Records
---
Amino acid sequence: MPCSPSPPLTQARPRTPSSRLDPSARRLRPGQRLVLDLAGLTFCDSSGITALIAARSHAHAAEVDIALAAVPAHTLRILRLVDLDQIFVLDP
């Protein structure tokens, strides 16, 4: 059976990590704490890690603390592997 080439892939222009932030996160005030609830997270790759780092940068620029809550075991393993468990507060 002959093979036919696949149709060309098209790529959507990726949004910047800061554009993925909830609008309420853009109204952070110094002294507040941003808690990211990861309980429903089923998969996290390098894009997810990039988004978490961008959220941390955004929070620190606004002089806001940031914490990760309910981090799934598979994501916690990745955070520990790349030492991000040292820069994020991890809430149970």
---
Amino acid sequence: MPFWQLPLKANRLLWIGLGTELLLIANIIYTPFLAAIFMVQPLTVHDWSLLTLCPIIMVLIEELRRYLCQRLWSHSTNQNR
């Protein structure tokens, strides 16, 4: 089943974990003394756009892979009958 067919409230702990992780990362990057400790710099708009685009591309590739595997699997099992 594709991920977009799952209800958004299906896994509450996943959403809590993602939110916590994003808050921690933003805090480390944009709080000056934490940024100095971890030796990081604020992200640019270009960086954020890449960070947004990459997961979308990865999900699309994974869904294409799943679709092709299902088609090839069903095609090969139909030939064996």
